[in-house]
Write a structure and sequence with these properties.
479 residues, alpha/beta, seven-stranded mixed β-sheet, six-stranded mixed β-sheet, 15 helices, 22 strands, globular, binds NADPH dihydro-nicotinamide-adenine-dinucleotide phosphate
Length: 479
């Protein structure tokens, strides 16, 4: 772990294993941090916050973020390789993720100098200001699907705001963040400003959520853990932002560009093995093109090259863990009973080792089926037919989640009518998944609350202070 500028073991001496999902081999052991380690990390972060970081100039904080971006750029291939070995994802996608991390740190490096307050118009006998101040120490809990990118999405805005951080990567994928931490000091980050604690969710993440010196929790992960975090943070009325995934509809009208639509449906749910919070896992297709669409998707899905992420030709790697593989296999079984199978439905037979599953397509899926309502977080597409615009919207919004949605049509009037009625925090037209670091990211309904990225991301780490300055020298006429 990286605490107060040094790499340390857990106080208890306990460790846990980290695996390569393609070989099932142990590739590292990490300290299993617990409450005592979180105490040290929080104390270091608090000392760094009050000891100077909150008072550094915005230019200086920005320069540190630019240097972190430069280091990731310089080490792109090495970090991408580690990300793939640890998470299973295709190397091409890991390289893209590293570029995303560079852009994210650069964006927040630039934004650091643009965090302004406001002057409020009041009568001439006073001056009223609203100024922005960093919240203090932030606790950040990261998932395993985009390990370094999710850390960048949280560290970038926190550091730009002037906060310090105690950050916990997922137990499955701690390696790239630890690797990047080796560069923190050289990038000009004072000891204690960022502390990386590794360990299990309840034992290491739990104490972050309840630590009295940690003022804010930023979490990405499952809805179940999100609810727990909200409950556990309530006693201290801690600020919380939650990004909790979803069951996003990808809607195809019969007038959409057919070839682009089929590719968009596959990309929307099979990228990153489907381990994507915004995965377009419910594919809604208008009846006129439905049969042809199912057949075209199935034919293409069968050509997706599944294999070790480290091989450049691989389009889909293994899932992150045996547990996640079992979870997805369970949903494949449920899907085979609930709907018809167009492609996949099991595990590929050619691998002796590795947590692989087949890209799977179910069709004639009822929107009330479990595979249409529950987050699977794997390469499983559920195709649902619809009649018209109203029918599409009814089905699309009939889910407890509301992270993302996409609509495909050549009719701009229809596209915007649908966009305005979709209950989702991110909506794409004629595309699915492009993520702009300058734009807000977050969900409606049970997909959580708070927004990451863009200037919205930095707001999550800022308090707003009202300052009233009396300009009237006459005494208060009260006595
Ligand atoms: P979790 O929600 O359990 O894990 C996300 C993060 O929360 C990890 O760092 C985890 O630590 C931590 N955590 C777990 N329990 C606690 C706790 N009690 N207190 C504080 N932190 C905790 O996701 P899983 O890995 O269990 O995946 C299960 C499902 O969650 C997936 O199938 C998917 O549906 C969803 N998910 C959604 C993601 C998204 O992007 N929205 C990302 C990942 C998963 P640790 O890993 O060390 O246990």
């Amino acid at each position: 772990m990286y605490i107060d500028g040094r790499f340390v073991n857990a106080k208890s001496g306990k460790t846990f294993n980290v695996y390569d999902p393609a070989t099932e081999q142990v590739i590292a052991t990490c300290p299993a941090g617990e409450a005592a380690d979180v105490d040290l990390a929080a104390a270091a972060a608090k000392k760094a916050f009050y000891g100077g970081w909150r008072g550094t100039s915005a230019q200086e904080r920005g320069r540190v973020l630019f240097r972190i971006a430069d280091r990731i750029r310089a080490r792109r291939d090495e970090l991408a390789r580690i990300e793939t070995l640890n998470s299973g994802k295709p190397i091409v996608e890991s390289e893209y993720d590293m570029d995303d991390c560079v852009t994210c740190f650069e964006y927040y490096g630039g934004l650091a100098t643009k965090i302004n307050g406001e002057v409020i118009p009041v009568p001439t006998n006073a001056m009223v200001l609203a100024v922005k101040e960093p919240m203090g120490v932030a606790g950040q809990i990261i998932p395993w699907n985009y390990p370094l990118a999710m850390a960048a999405w949280k560290l970038g805005p926190a550091l730009a705001a002037g906060c310090c951080a105690v950050i916990k990567p997922a137990e499955q994928t701690p390696l790239t963040l630890l690797e990047l931490a080796k560069d923190f000091e050289a990038c000009g980050l004072p000891p204690g400003v960022v502390n990386v604690v590794t360990g299990m969710g309840p034992e290491c993440g739990g104490p972050i959520v309840t630590h009295p010196d940690i003022r804010k929790i930023a979490f990405t992960g499952s809805a179940e853990v999100g609810k727990l975090i909200m409950r556990n943070a309530a006693d201290q009325l801690k600020r919380v932002s939650l990004e909790l995934g979803g069951k996003s509809p990808n809607i195809f009208f019969s007038d959409s560009d057919f070839e682009a639509a089929v590719d968009g449906a596959l990309f929307g749910v099979f990228i990153n093995q489907g381990e994507v919070c915004s995965a377009g896992s419910r594919v809604l297709v208008q009846k006129e093109i439905y049969q042809k669409f199912v057949e075209a998707c199935a034919a293409k899905a069968k050509t997706i090259r599944v294999g070790p992420g480290i091989e450049r030709e691989t389009k889909m790697g293994p899932l992150v863990s045996a547990e996640q593989r079992d979870r997805v296999r369970k949903y494949q079984e449920i899907g085979r009973k609930e709907a018809k199978t167009a492609a996949g439905g099991g595990a590929p037979s050619q691998f002796a080792k590795g947590w692989y599953v087949e890209p799977t397509i179910f069709y004639d899926v009822d929107n009330n089926a479990r595979i249409a309502q529950e987050e699977i977080f794997g390469p499983v597409m559920s195709i649902i037919p619809f009649k018209d615009e109203a029918d599409a919207l009814r089905i699309a919004n009939a889910t407890p989640y509301g992270l993302a949605a996409a609509v495909w049509t050549r009719d701009i009037f229809k596209a915007f009518r649908v966009v305005k009625q979709l209950e989702a925090g991110v909506v794409w037209v004629n595309h699915m998944q492009p993520t702009m670091l300058e734009a807000p990211w977050g969900g409606y309904k049970m997909s959580g609350f708070g927004r990451e990225l863009g200037h919205w991301g930095v707001e999550e780490y800022l308090e707003t202070k009202q300052i009233y300055v009396n300009l009237d020298e006459t005494p208060i006429a009260w006595y």
